[in-house]
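Honest question from a wet-lab person: if I give you the sequences of every part of a complex, can you actually get the arrangement of the whole thing, not just the pieces? Trying it with mine:
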Amino acid sequence: MNEKGYGLEMKEVTIILSRDKETLERWMKAYSGLIFTICYSMTGDYFQSEDLAQETFVSAYRAMGSFDGKKEKAWLVKIASNKCRDYLKSSARRMVPSEDQVFDTVKDTSPLPEEEVIGDDLERRLKDLCGSLREPYRTVATEYFIHRKHPEQIARETGTNVKTVQTQFYRARAMLQRLWKEEQL
Amino acid sequence: MNHRMIEQHVTDEQLLRMRGGAATPEEADRWLDHIADCDLCAQRMAELFEEIPQLEVTPLFCESVWREIEETSEQSNERIVVSRTIVSRTDAAGRRSAAVAGERRPAARQERTPRAMRSYPFKVVLAACVTLILMNAGMFGSNGIGSQTQRGLADKMLESKEKISQELKDTSQRWSGFADILDLTEGDEGL
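Yes, you can. This is the full assembly:
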């Protein structure tokens, strides 16, 4: 019997874990775009929504034992909604809007065309932000976020150490996240 | 089904407003609150969002998810190891059963042990102070609680002693009667 008293053998635990990993891989392949898009629509923050989407899958993996196996897409959307709601609440607590911001919000309630929120506008904005970084972060960020290249591929192409590229990428991402927030204010 | 499920479902129009980023923070909060609990609305939301071009996740997305899962599971393992160490230290002092307690007791409970140990001297000092106060107040004197208790106990012991001595007396009388009879019979045989 294991420490939780479920009476599972080590072999059974290993099988369950590997099955859960396979399931999560499949979900990420099938629904990561959908969850990312939902989070982006809710928050309007590219980098934050990526974090929320990742948190959604982490929570889904941890809660897989309580999942009844039906309507996995709806289940993931429910988790993502919960994450977005928590984020919006916490960000609302952090931000005390000025008078001008309150009036801007009131003016902004008309529906926006979706292509303005998602799509070309986002790519243009990402390009501008990446372009505003100094080297070597600009190259790494552009290759990663615009050309969708893996850090290992960037390292091969630029003849740099993979670890160096990874460090540059994480710094570039933090800079972009800060710039994005500054633009939103 | 909780109170949030009883509320009205989120309409397509409302979902489209959320999709377009046009919902106010209050609306988004209310609708997301419902969707987080409602299978039907979550399913409908997924369908509506699938109609528009979806964002592509970055190349390290999946790796980051796996790293997060591994890091958090490592942290929880470390927490278990730390709490087990605490428990086995207290066991060495003869207070706890280590292995079983370490596995079954929640981590938060185990982490509280050092704090409980820190408060122990304070409790001892407090108990000593209370005892001194009671002694000064004469509670343990001739008219105090202790003397009364002792007096009560002595009375009971005296009663039981008297009973026992009476019973012994009766028994010895009975035995002496038997002995006389036996002596007579032995005397007859000898004759």
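Two things worth pointing out. Chain B is about 80% helix and 0% strand. The CA atoms of residues 160 and 166 of chain B lie 10 Å apart.
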